[in-house]
Design brief:
Elements: H1 3-18, H2 23-35, H3 40-65, H4 70-116, H5 118-131, H6 136-146, H7 150-160, H8 173-189, H9 200-226, H10 230-259
Helix pairs in contact: 1-2, 3-4, 3-8, 3-9, 3-10, 4-5, 4-7, 4-8, 5-6, 5-7, 9-10
């Protein structure tokens, strides 16, 4: 048995001993607790801000490199904020909603199977528990408990056979889309703001500096999901962002020079 699978019997025994309702209630409480540690909205917010800042920073640097007038850069940047934020919000909504609908359809199919052939589904649960290290009698006892009601049976089959955590269906697609839209717009606005009161090389330098600070902050925020060092993640984000912006700036300058001939 693989090392990761050996943990399952220990986990089930611990939950059965510590939860008032035994293994079944212990499993539900454990999964509910850990299912709340993340969330579509938080993930969409951090990634939205990162995408917004990186994409619009590069856009602004590209047109700045082409020697476009200050107002032209500002209008281009504002257009990038609006277009990107709308696209990001709609894309996030479609992604979350489509994923939820797919999972719901699979759960509906499992619900029909439980209603049509409960004995077969109970046997499947027995095999699943045996594969996780339980002996045959314990597996049959657990499967019998799970199959006592349609709700608990569906929950067990959803988690153990389909591998779907029902908490993944609780997030709001609209919330994820709204947060993604807002955070993309905030991130994308950072390189644009300096052009509202500055112009020329000064505006470009300040824009790059503000973007670098924003990239570091976002890189640090990403560690909420990765668990990596804030300093390392932040500096990596800054390095990648500045390298990309420099390349785009030089390409914009090259194109602008050729078009100006």
């Amino acid at each position: 048995m693989r090392a990761t699978e050996r943990l399952h019997p220990m986990l089930y025994r611990h939950l059965g001993q510590t939860a008032p309702g035994g293994v079944e209630d212990g499993i539900a409480a454990h999964l509910e607790k850990h299912g709340k540690s993340g969330g579509n909205a938080l993930r969409a917010g951090v990634l939205g801000a990162s995408d917004g800042l990186l994409s619009n920073f590069n856009l602004v640097m590209g047109v700045a490199g082409a020697n476009l007038a200050g107002k032209g850069i500002l209008l281009t940047g504002v257009a990038g904020v609006l277009a990107g934020a709308i696209s990001m919000g709609l894309g996030e909504w479609i992604s979350v909603q489509s994923s939820r609908e797919l999972l719901q359809e699979r759960i509906r199919g499992e619900k029909d199977e439980i209603a049509e052939a409960p004995a077969r589904e109970a046997a499947e649960l027995v095999h699943i528990y045996q594969a996780r290290g339980f002996d045959e009698d314990t597996s049959k006892t657990m499967a019998t408990r799970m199959m006592r009601s349609p709700a608990s049976a569906l929950d067990a089959m959803t988690r153990d056979e389909l591998g779907i955590n029902p908490s993944r269906l609780s997030g709001s697609a609209w919330a994820a889309a709204g947060v993604s839209f807002l955070m993309f717009a905030i991130g994308a606005a950072i390189p644009v703001v300096p052009y509202t009161f500055l112009s020329g090389t000064t505006a470009t330098v300040v824009s790059a500096g503000a973007s670098a600070v924003g990239l570091f902050v976002i890189g640090g925020a990403i560690t909420l999901f990765t668990g990596k060092s804030v300093l390392w993640s932040g500096l990596r984000q800054v390095a990648f962002g500045l390298v990309a912006a420099t390349v785009v700036y030089l390409i914009g300058h090259l194109i602008g020079t050729r078009l100006g001939r």
